[in-house]
Target: Peroxisomal membrane protein 4
Amino acid sequence: MPLPPSLAALVQRVEGILADPDLQVPLSILKGFRNGMVYGAKVRFPHALVMTFLFRTGTLEEKARIIFKATKTHSKNLAFFVTIYKSLMLLQKHLAGDKEMSFHSFLAGLIGGYLVFGDDNGINQQMILYLFSRVMVALVKIPVKHGVLPKPKASFSIFAALTWAAVMWLFRHERDTLQPSLQASMQYLYLDSNHWKGLRTLLWHNK
Model:
């Protein structure tokens, strides 16, 4: 169904404004904010929905409130980080004579990460741990990329070995520094398996 002439003219005028090269910078930041909100909601909502209904108790209204709060926090944080990051990248490029330097992304990420994700809460912890694991895997690949290590398998094998060595040492000697959920998992796997009272608690039940 075609738009009324007045509305069609307004849409055409708005699209003409959006195509203005002088507005590229502010509009790219605006869309970055929008994409952060949308992506954060898409990622967090299904995760919060499943985890809340599987592991949380309470009324349906209470669970809905938890899901909404988690989704809102994830979306808001991601949107603000994208906005800060893009703004700082553009500012640094401007200050450097319209030239992007290699450290610009690091500095923008550093400032944005501190301002947006500096609060130690459950949502931020999950996001940072997710990113940290991906960063570590990427860093392991760098020696292979530059020929320091000959095979990808060799670099990943070293990474896997060091990761397991570190977590087992921490669990054995500095257990309280690990996340409670990880402590509980490792307690079940490595310590609870040392105890049983009979066939029932050996094979069917933990305790």
Summary: The chain has a mean pLDDT of 89. The chain is about 80% helix and 0% strand. Residues 105 and 133 are 19 Å apart (CA to CA).
